[in-house]
């Protein structure tokens, strides 16, 4: 009799900006543990040395203990991957202000793909560990492969996988926030372009009206025979243009922030010592 298990271990390579999956198969009998590692193309073999070293330090290195150490190592890999994904999302948030839209969309799509695949991997692993904790997995009659003390140790592995699931949910929310911020930035940039186009069209509108007014082919225009008519039209063009530019500058559509608006006060810092009993005092 034996216990057969299949684990998929996601491994993040930050230098190459990719995640690959290492399959680890185990066959556990009462006296022997066999592991089979299937390394994908372009990957590297799963490192079992940390689990081996921890087992050799134990006085009674049973097969059940070996399986526990291996499962604990795999759970640590999941937590490391969640941390790596959080670092990638932080880097994405920092790059939204500087990267191109195509690069941001590509990074968001890749991170969403990785999050979905890791979530689909960690959920079955968590359920399998839960079955061990609930004493629903063992070999047949005779000495137990997984004694009760080992099964209780598997509860720590289960807790780590729960933390990994919670971390993936948080990473998904952070990625959604970064995506929403990117979309809001695109809309804001489009609004800024629309404002500038409005300024250009408005500035050109009044001079075009003045030139069109005095360019009419009528004989009885009051300023037609006036010696200062040319400078009169230019004066109106310069004055109206300057007034429009000043107005748009006051609105903040050109030249920076709006003028004449009060600045928001800085956020006050909350002193934890002043928070105690605040609700009771209110």
How would you summarize this macromolecular structure in one to three sentences?
With 282 residues, the protein is mainly α. The protein has helices at 49-56, 63-95, 101-133, 148-214, 229-251, 272-275, 278-281, and strands at residues 3-13, 18-28, 33-38.
Structure characteristics:
282 residues, mainly alpha, Methane Monooxygenase Hydroxylase, Chain G, domain 1, three-stranded antiparallel sheet, 7 helices, 3 strands
CATH architecture of the domain at 3-188: Up-down Bundle
Biggest beta sheet attributes: 3 strands, antiparallel
> What is the CATH topology of the domain at 3-188?
Methane Monooxygenase Hydroxylase, Chain G, domain 1
Write out the strand line-up for the largest beta sheet, numbering strands in chain order: 1-2-3
Fourth-tier CATH superfamily name of the domain at 3-188: Magnesium transport protein CorA, transmembrane region
Strand content: 5-15%
Explain this structure to me?
By secondary structure, the protein is mainly alpha-helical. The chain has a domain at 3-188: Methane Monooxygenase Hydroxylase, Chain G, domain 1. Helices cover 61% and strands 10% of the residues. It has helices spanning 49-56, 63-95, 101-133, 148-214, 229-251, 272-275, 278-281, and strands at 3-13, 18-28, 33-38. A 3-stranded antiparallel β-sheet has the order 1-2-3. A hairpin with a 4-residue loop joins β1 and β2. The two termini are 67 Å apart.
